[in-house]
Design a protein that fits this description.
5 helices, Nuclear Transport Factor 2, Chain: A, about 25% strand, alpha+beta
Amino acid sequence: MKLLSVFAFLVILVGCSDEVSFTKAEDAQDAGREFIRASLDGNFPKAEFYLHKDTVSLLVYNRWKAGFQKMCAEENINYRQTNILPIEKKSNNDSVVSYTYSNSYKKEPTTLKIVRINGEWLVDLTELH
């Protein structure tokens, strides 16, 4: 009976946790897609999970985040409903990939640099085009 009580307590404790876990990207395209989708959806904790947290990337990202939060509700909905349209994925070497995409709402091509650091693929916004 005590074992059952301890188990139930642990289940409740884990279930009440505010901590959200995300899955590491398997490759550069996965990191780019997850970052882009989370950014368009306004899911900032998830987007930050896939972001290389250097000074420039954080500055660019925080500027996008602030702008997104100031948008009107209709524009936020348009971003959330948009589709990601991959254009090109180009490997510069085994640790750097350029990922060009557009979205069905704005239709403006954007190129992200995705880097592998310590075996983890992350979006680097230092060379955003």
